[in-house]
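Dear support,

I submitted the protein below through the web form. The confirmation email said the job was done, but the results page showed an empty box. After a refresh the structure appeared. I'm attaching both so you can tell me whether what I see now is the final result or a partial one.
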Amino acid sequence: MNIPVGNIVEKRVSFEKTAADKKVTQLLNSNFSGYMVATAEGITGIEEAILLILGREIIGAVFEAISINKTFYGLQGLRLSLNLLKAKKGVFDVNALTKQQIDLIIAFNEKIALLHPVGIDIFLKLLPAVYRPGTVLELLKADLSKTEQREKILKRFGLGSI
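What the results page shows now:
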């Protein structure tokens, strides 16, 4: 995914020094435009979350389980990203971007966009109380189930696994 670096605001800040979820709250309250990248070791290995923020709203999200080469976008990406923010150990970076740069990111990566931007109130409601390592596995199982169902339907029509 191509995301410009922009202006680095904070780099390699430990979750132990500043809680990642608290940092997102600060960014939303300060009318920030840019993104936050959070990285932690989860149940699947290294996991990375990117939250794209425009003004007082989260407008896009990506979550990547790097070790297993699986990426979730949009609402699923947001759910997993918010879970990752509650991890005890990890690091995050914050980079400022212009509105035009954010518009270009969304234009070239439409699937990261959230249908309904998430403001501070909804962010706080969606944020889990604690990090749940099994959340990624739950979505992986659901994703595999969808793929298996698709393949069964295609086989029924003699199309194999297109």
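Response: this is the final, complete result; the empty box was a page-load delay. The helical segments are 20-29, 74-85, 99-108, 120-126, 134-156.
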